[in-house]
Amino acid sequence: xxxxxxxxxxxxxxxxPSLINTLSEAFRxxxxxMPLRQSYDVGTVASPGHLxxxxxxxxxxxxxxxxxxxxxxxxxxxxxxxxxxxxxxxxATGRPRAxxxxxxxxxxxxxxxxxxxxxxxxxxxSRTLLLIGTGRLAxxxxxxxxxxxxIEAVLVWGRNAQRAQRLADTLEHQGLKAKxxxxxxxxxxxxxxxxxxxxxxxxxIAGQHLRPGTHLDLxxxxxPEMRESDDDAVCRSRVFVDTYEGAFKEAGDLLRPIAAGxxxxxxxxxxxxxxxxxxxxxxxxxxxxxxxxxxxxxxxxLAAANLLxxx
Length: 311
What we know:
The chain is of the alpha/beta class. 35% of the residues lie in helices and 24% in strands. A hairpin with a 5-residue loop joins β5 and β6. The model has no long low-confidence stretch (mean pLDDT 94).
């Protein structure tokens, strides 16, 4: 008998230390290459909409698929533009095991993947986290990063100052020392880790303002048209990705400087499989700038769902 896991149950059932370790093992094993997400136009002229599918499987053990709908005009009716549901099946019988709130699962596994990358790429003494973005995903990132690094201060920057203040207050209630940042350039000058979770189509992070030793965690932009960093930020960094396949298809932060002739795909230093398996090394020095570009991978959803739905 399958059951439904609410957002609250997802948050309660997936503690970050366990989830980070689970994702590490999933990326280390890797297994079969998973299909990239597929998008289908399911809307009308009056109400445009898209259906996205993200399947993954571990033969004989588990399989699942995340279903995501994107209806941009929902804001006019005070409804969220994005809705999602994850369905987990038994890998041996094909029987459904669970339905899971897709947004909570996505936010939590995305934050955990960022923290996993940070273990290899940020400086071990990183204490100041700059959070760029004020949406739901942004609210998950500081707690995850705090599991792997001794974060003492969180600076929150957003285009809307009131939303930045509200998110900082929320993080304070979670036990994190947080405050809004009025000036992004000034905040970049003191940040050890910069975690960016937006859907921006124009660069927010200018490479010229990054100080040596910074780690960039770019998790928001997930289409070729979106980007959170400029060409200089990419060119100054040692760049890592969650998966090569996803990055080459969807990461505007990397595809745009490639198209401009400023950077090459061959300059990617590794992915999470190579980092977790020891095939590639992470940070080499205290002074270098590292960049992790995540667009999301179905293997993360499956690993998180399996951890949540324990027999």
